[in-house]
Amino acid sequence: MSADSTVSEDSSAGIPAKAEKKDASRKDGNDFLHRMVAEAIGTLLLVAGGVGTAIFDATFPSSSSNIVGVGHLGVALAFGLTVIVGCYAFGPISGGHFNPAITLGLAAAGRFPWSETAGYIIAQVIGGILGSSLIALIASSNSAFFSAALSSGFASNGYGAHSPGGFGIGGAIAVEIVFTAIFGLVVLGTTARVGFTGFAPLAIGLTLTLIHLITIPIDNTSVNPARSIAAAVYGGGWAWSQLWVFIVFPIVGGLLAGLVYRPFFGAKYTEA
Predict the structure, then answer these.
(1) How far is CA 128 from the centre of its chain?
(2) Which of 92, 126, 159, 217 is deepest in the core (most CB within 10 A)?
(3) Is 81 domain-assigned?
(4) What is the three-class DSSP state of 40?
(5) For the domain that residue 258 is a member of, what is the CATH number?
(6) Is 2 exposed, middle or buried (0-12, 13-18, 19+ CB in 10 A)?
(7) What single DSSP character describes residue 17?
């Protein structure tokens, strides 16, 4: 991560990489593999931190006796903090997307090559599943707790009977489009050349925290298909049947942000 407004040519991702002398190795297959690994680890961190907090700490020691549980505020902070840490740690390598909707939004804005989107998304999904599998492995050491976590959906996203507040599919669709678009605009704006890019991870992480504070009661907050897929792997039946909403509409929101960013704000303020 660098506050330097000069970025390397191939760092057209969310968080600008530090400017450096170019060499052939920056363009070869190994470089792309390294960036995919960074995306996978960053998404693993996001899912393990956010979903793990929701499962282990949202209510503790139990829902009926929530003495030290962190509640919605703690879960929101966990997602935000993991993004801040992940962007500072891995952003200089991969750009710190950790989210297929952000990757596609950046591509739509001309800030990331379309040819690399598939590799990034695959890495993000794999990293997310590894993150939820780590949480499942830890939870399985307490069989009763693990069984309860699985039966409750493993912090999966949902609507209707599976919405924390009982909100329907229309509310979930609106939330995922609007707030993913807002998130995408924040990512694009804070990583633009005119921005203070060294502080971008803070703004991005705090935005994700705010989004969770607003929308957890609606659908448990996705704005990230990789996070939703990762939880649904262990959420089972209903989580899989409703998963399409949390894949399709965050992507719609991300693409919307990418497509309107430059027309709304002009080339002067949107260059990376």
Answers:
(1) 9
(2) 159
(3) yes
(4) helix
(5) 1.20.1080.10
(6) middle
(7) P
| Gyration radius of the chain's alpha carbons | 18
Residue 2 lies in a domain: no
Asked if the structure places residue 9 within a domain, the reply is no
Report the distance separating Cα 38 and Cα 125, nearest Å: 13
Query: 247-261 as b/e, with b when 16 or more CB fall inside 10 Å?
Result: bebbbbbbbbbbebb
d(CA 204, CA 182): 11
- For 15-32, the pLDDT digits (tens) are 644 433 344 444 566 899
- Asked, for residue 5, whether it belongs to a domain, the answer is no
Q: Which of 41, 27, 36, 72 is nearest to 54 (CA)?
A: 72
- What H or E segment, with its residue span, contains residue 188? helix 169-190
User: Structure pTM?
Assistant: 0.89
d(CA 147, CA 89) in angstroms, rounded, equals 34
Q: Work out how many domains the chain is built from and give that number.
A: 1
- Domain ranges, residue 142: 25-270
